[in-house]
Each structure stands twice: as C-alpha cells, then as structure tokens.
Design goal:
disordered N terminus; 9 strands; alpha+beta; 3 domains
C-alpha cells in the first residue's frame, strides 16, 4: 500500500512539473489593457490574469515556468503561438522614406522592409512581436559589448573563472555569454558578455 501511495505522489509531482514547463508568456493585448483599470496594480493584473483569462499569475517569478520568461501572466503553450522576442523596431530613415514611393501603401512598405532591407514586416503585430512594439518593420536585435563595471568586478569572486563570468553575465545580468566567440554577434567585438543594444 505504501509503495502505491509513493508511486501516486511521484506521478502527481511529475504531472505538475510537466504542466508548468508548458506555460508561456501571455502578452497583454489592447483588449486586456482596456479591460483593466487605469493605474492598475499587481493585484489588478493578478485578478485579470487568473480570474478573467484563467491563466497563471507569477509576477515574473518563473522558476517553475521557464518558458514564460520574465512575464507576469503565463498561459498554456499552444501551437498557434508565434511570439518572436528577438526582433525589435526598425525606424524608417530619411533614406528609406525617399526610396519608397510617395503615397506608399502597406504593400510598398512590406516589399521594402523584407526584400530590400531583409527584415520582417509585422504590420504592427505587437502580440507576436512584442519587442517590436507597434512598428511595422522589425529588425533582429543587435548585441553590443557589456564592459565590466567596478560593481561587476566586486560582485564576482576574486580569481574568477570563465564559469564565474558566465554565471554573472547570464544569471545575474540576463545577458549573453559568448567567451569572445562572436560570429553571431559581430557588433559585440571581442567581448565575452554581450547585451542587447538599448
């Protein structure tokens, strides 16, 4: 009997952990913002996330929901989810505006964004491209060097190893540790710790 109880507990823990691992970020939509009170508090967001949407409110504490990132409201993963957080807004330059026809259409901008610049045309879809905001043309994030500060040096152990630096860069600062292998991050130069360009 005890063995059956132990097995049931183990199975329950496994099922809970598995379900938690399958939660992803719910990005607030315009409809969500309109439904919540102005000057909303975390409690307002919790009530809306859990009681209205039926999701899980974590306030960003996502150790058990790793796929939810730093979001506060996590929802079950679904195949329809197309969120791309690696793209940011590309602002049209004066040169871009001159290159596109006067009285340009959305199709003109799509062609220019995708075929000329090689970027992604989202038409302001901030749900699937949250870091691009309401921009219509999204470019990949540019990663630049994070130069260690005096505060960084104090926070890391004396005689630090590459593993110490990796942990600090990724786990504390939330950046990307490359150990200088920056083929994918050319703007980061020879740095070991790369951060998104602000």
């Amino acid at each position: 009997m005890m063995r059956l109880v132990s097995l049931a507990i183990t199975l329950a823990v496994f099922l809970v952990d598995s379900s938690k691992a399958e939660f992803v970020c719910h990005h607030w939509t315009e409809e969500d913002y309109n439904a919540m009170p102005q000057g909303r508090t975390p409690e307002d967001e919790r009530q809306y996330c859990e009681d209205v949407l039926g999701y899980v409110f974590t306030q960003g504490e996502n150790e058990f929901y790793p796929k939810c990132g730093q979001c506060w409201c996590c929802k079950p993963d679904g195949e329809e989810l197309l969120v791309n957080e690696d793209l940011v807004c590309y602002h049209w330059t004066e040169e871009d505006n001159k290159a596109m026809p006067q009285g340009r259409t959305a199709e003109d901008e799509k062609y220019y964004c995708e075929d000329v610049l090689g970027y992604t045309f989202s038409k302001g879809d901030y749900v699937n491209y949250p870091n691009c905001g309401t921009c219509w043309c999204c470019r990949p994030k540019v990663f630049v060097c994070h130069h260690w500060t005096e505060e960084d040096y104090k926070a890391m152990p004396q005689g630090r190893t590459p593993e110490d630096e990796r942990q600090y860069c990724e786990d504390v600062l939330g950046y990307t540790f490359t150990q200088g292998q920056n083929e994918e991050y050319p703007e980061c130069g020879e740095c070991w710790c790369c951060k998104p360009e602000s």
